Amino acid sequence: MLSRVAERIYWLGRYLERTENTARLLTVYSNLLLDLPRGAKVGWHTLVEITGSQDEFSKTYQNTDERSVNRFLLSDQNNYSSIISSLGLARENARTTREIIPTEAWEQINKLYLFTKESMGKATARGPRHQLLQDIIAHCQQIAGLLAGAMSHNSGYNFLRIARSLERADMTTRIVDVGSITLLPSLTQTGATAEQSTRPFANMIWMSVLHSLSAYQMYRQHVLDRVNGEDVVTFLLQDSQFPRAVRHCLGKLEACLKFLPNNEAALRQVSEAVALVDDANIAELLDSGLLEYIDELQVEFANIHASITETWFLPVVSEQQQSA
Amino acid sequence: MQIDWKSYNPGAFYDELISSPGYPRKSGRILARYLASLKSDDLQQRKTAAELAIKAMGISFTVYSEAGNIDREWPFDIIPRIITETQWQKTSQGLEQRLRALNCFIDDIYNDQKILKDKVVPAELIAKSVNFRKECIGMKPRHGVWAHICGTDLIRDTNGQFYVLEDNLRVPSGVSYMLENRKVTKRVFPELFENYNILPITEYTSHLFDTLAAISPRPLDYPEVVVLTPGIYNSAYFEHSFLAQRMGAELVEGGDLVVEDDCVYMRTINGLSRVDVIYRRIDDLFLDPEVFNPDSALGVPGLMRAWLKGNVALANAPGAGVADDKVIYTYVPAMIKYYLGEEPLLENVPSYLCVDEKQCQHVLANLDKLVVKPANESGGYGMLMGPQASKKERADFAKKIKANPRNYMAQPLISLSTAPVLVDRGAEPRHIDLRPFVLQGRDSYVTPGGLTRVAMVKGSYIVNSSQGGGSKDTWIVSDEER
Questions:
Q1: Are residues B399 and B256 in the same domain?
Q2: Does the CB of A324 have a partner CB in chain B at under 8 Å?
Q3: Interface ipTM above 0.90
């Protein structure tokens, strides 16, 4: 497989996963905000923070209200992490690897892009927006299924899965980040004493964190106790069986890397990340240091990405420097 | 949008479906009757279905000038064009014959130059040809074939006879659209396929692969064949990717290839991997910055060295364009006699060479009746449509001809045949041409039919997709109805 093709397929995988994750994020967040009391100061700005695009956002928007944030993350073509941008880049990478991926997959990706582009203008009210996001998620799942069922599980497919796993792990840490740190302190500022006011909401928030990763059901089956911060974070970071848990993603990543030639450097990076996850004491981290810990994890992910790039992709700067 | 053939008038032109208002040709009767039976809604629905299919399948071409909207959907008319198998057979043989002669010519030009010594073709034409590559002198590609893939443009005059308008021997494009057009028609008019015996065209990519594999310098069962594209912004990128996909070949860009020890390798995730055959879709001058255009970022440094040493095959071979020149074109009938000792089965459009003083006088005196073409442009650029041009345009063009007569040839304006296309009020005649694709390696192959290009503007003769042309599915049908 050509290095350039491997690179494009890798980015196709990342952008598809990013599209789905962003759609999930927007869906769950809308639901969560409906449940919270009026006084709660949890705002839409949190979403901008999760996607790490505060600077980009403040360039164009004054208010972090529902309309602006949704526009920014769904249909703003100037925001490179919006759903439409991710889809556009996924489509471009699919278009330029059409000789490798199954034709049906290209057609589905193309259709999803055209569909989203046409529908997004009408999706400003909550109802239609919810429907659109559901459709996008369903389409992404369909594409993933199509690729799994119609593409040989060769190097190309491995790059797709590697990309998906890395993107997923990254998004899960961002969501945990939000659940544990950004949301809670802002809730305690509502006036009432922290102990009394946050408790019912904290559970709700953890629940929606689980929902945003489609993890609620699996969590309930796995953790018999009621929803609580420590168990949720442990589950999302350390569980080896849940597909969106960081530990699971890293396991998948490792397994796929083993099929590729010259994989030593990348595997070493993954082992480092695995150790960091396995050795973490979540209870302690929840008391203090989770934010720094997650930063550390994200640096590990960036290192894995760098190592993949260096080993398998073209040494020259590719025509589309894409954002990790 | 109902079709009424009684009000369809092709006038003085040869219409391929309707011979005169209300009277379809024999081969087209079923089609014409079927189309006329469709209600307006139904026709509209088929048209929309075709548009949606093209959009969803992502059949597109790129237009350079439109920044921001680079990928355009392929313009397609849903009414297929019918040519009978009997009519086609002779044409097909003529195309094969023509390419054989052209390859003899190219091989001769870069080796013994017998045809020049025998004064069948004037030596000065070659000396002044911009497509002659001195770097290729002495080269002997396998099977003596330089142009492995040829796209020949055919037109039909008022009697319906086929003429060759030009041969494209460098990087002819359009074959993917020919194949996709058929796919779209199958989606739109599946019922018609039951009533006609239509020759299938899908085998093209297998033949292309076989042709390419047969020129591999290494005798391998599975030589590494790649398609070399200028990149994702090229107007024919869709086609490059399509052909690579259908052949199961790698689609590479210049940056993916590297030459070491005069062999070509591609950069893969396993490291460097040897390449045997390159179906290149970039022009000669961009192939190798060491030999040609030093600024070319599209090519591969050292590629020509590897080719000249015989370590890699290039299709088409560099320098093949020497025969793809509108002035050399006029000598093809002579070449057929000279090299093959055969009579040409396909005729050229009568032409005047400006390099010949007498003929040039004639051209200059009759600019209002002629179409003047530069020797080496493609895509319909740089030509003068005499009858439609203004006085000033003709005067300006006359100056260009006088300054560089070798660069121009002229032809009478041949009345291109027409075929019905679907318009808002029903069907109207539009001018069309035909580009069949011819392969030559160890064996020869001609596509049954080819890409029919349509001048979508009423009365226009310009069929190029870059200038608003459209296309049709082309059916070669056996004369006996099923």
A1: no
A2: no
A3: no
